[in-house]
Amino acid sequence: MRVLPVGERALLVEASSGDEVEALHAELLRRRGQGSLSAREIVPAARTILLDGLDEPDRLASELAAAEVPPAPPRAGAVVEIPVRYDGPDLADVAAHWGVSPEEVARIHAGTEFRVAFCGFAPGFGYLTGLPPRYDVPRRATPRTAVPAGSVGLAGPYTGVYPRSSPGGWQLIGTTDTVLWDHARVPAALLSPGTRVRFTPIGSAGTA
To answer: By three-state DSSP, how is residue 115 classified?
Structure first.
């Protein structure tokens, strides 16, 4: 684990894996909740965590560099359920890549509990982990110029839901009517780092 200064009151922690990011993020949130860590923002990404608004960044940097990160605690909190129709245009391609039928892709995906590892790309977009590595899929060779809002896609180890129409190269396996980002909602984002997520099929491959 490497700790780098960012400006006067921020640190960027580089981790060796997504699992280490998850464990460290949970530990930092625990410490902030107990009052032993002063950080205005704790922002995880794929392999890093940004801590901003620190009172003593130098002291914390030394402490983190020498620390052993405890394992992440069992996932807690309510599960956000997202109804999905497994009708995406890339469903057959994903099925071929996995070596299963389209119906089996829907069953595997809906049978997995996901966790939001981090957010980015667009407001409300969460990068969800949970599928075993054997189900990683490559991005499309040619990205689409417009992916409809509500599209459920796969890329590498991640699942994501497009909160609005935008260009994208993820493999689209389904659609949902769930609103991921709503300015009138508090908080506006349905998903945040650490949120547990399950996809509930309301239609699967080959069904109406």
So the answer is: strand
